[in-house]
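Dear colleague,

As promised, here are the two records you asked about, laid out in our usual form so they can be pasted straight into your sheet.

NAME FIELD: protein one
SEQUENCE, THEN STRUCTURE:
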Amino acid sequence: MNNIKNEVLILLTEQWNDWEASYAIAVINSFSDYEVKVKTIAVDDIPKKSMGGINAFVDYSINDYQNFNNLAMVILPGGLFWEENDYNEIAEFIKKIMKLQIPVAAICGATTFLCKHGLLNNVKHTGDSLELFKNQEGYMGEAFYVPAQVVVDNNIITANETAAVEFAYEIFKRLEIGSEDEMEQWYDNFKNGAIR
């Protein structure tokens, strides 16, 4: 890694989609040569239950997180609650992250949340569908929408709900987890299968 930032936050809501971030967080926590560690963050410090029924402890509440010097990235997994809630405090937190030019990676329902708050209006992005995005009040980014599994534009990574492998791969590249050859081999194995 080109800098000393070594903390990745995964932002949890109730009913977060555990599988959408699982590839990324497992590899970051277990196989990184750079001692990058994943920590959880939420609007409060109450454990959050995933759609798969996993109770995840919360390391930080948004209001308590003030030191951004070690922050390498924020990952927003999808989940049913993104569309049902405004989460204004999360929106303000992500705006601050973007202003600091810290990478943000969002998948599935989390991309819809970013659209709702106008946070994808000026960057190339993707998500579950353009029609879904167009129904979000704060969305004016139709010209920047790309129908793709995953889209990377500067410090923003977005992916649709079927792109957990591609999503993780782009996160690995951005964080420089392992060598280029190792990342390509990982992607090939998990996308296409180890036995063919």
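NAME FIELD: protein two
SEQUENCE, THEN STRUCTURE:
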Amino acid sequence: MINGKRVLALIPARGGSKGIPNKNVYKINRKPLIAYTINSALECDYIDSVVVSTDSEVITKAAIRAGAEVPFMRPSELASDTSKTIDVVLHAIEALKNMGREFDYVVLLQATSPLRTASDIAGALDTFVKNEEKGLVSVSEAEESPILMRKFDENGFLVRIIEGNSTIRRQDLPTYYKVNGAIYINRVDDLNKDTSLNDNEIGYIMDKTHSADIDEYKDIAEVNYYLGLLGRK
């Protein structure tokens, strides 16, 4: 609980995955991927309940073993490649409400961000409350400046993505941030089907060492590197 409000940590984890089969339970250092996110949520003092939304019995067993709750199964229509995250969130909130469990804030934690820590979650919640409970999304510094990026127009010519002087030294370029997918925080009452979580207006800056997102096998090597660097193996 924070600010007198009940906080739900929701971890979406569907069974289907293309890049890495059974990605959410893929073992990293003999530990299922989803367990890293569950552990960080459980270690955060502000979190009241840690719930996993899944359609998979395998993920259910791994989640419960790691200490999370799986009080309902996600319907198949919300577990496809085209399912929207906001629909998964709304389903979970309604399912819990029907069980007599209501929350004020929902913290969405994707299982593919295993390096996010309890301190990151607590810091994000502090930032959320200090900013009048406006929607928050975690970000990390972008490695490439969009000033140096181009796209082809309909005539095949290169055009800028954003305006800006690209002749200045790289070290003098402005700092840009990208959504890293690790933490999203919203007031439950503010959510609806049109909510775009990536467009939450408050940014919580996370260090690159905590921001890795696993999508392909090559990302696992990066996570293992940072786990060793951070002494978390």
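A couple of things worth noting about protein two: The helical segments are 33-42, 57-66, 85-98, 118-130, 217-229. The first strand starts at residue 7 and ends at 12.

Best,
R.
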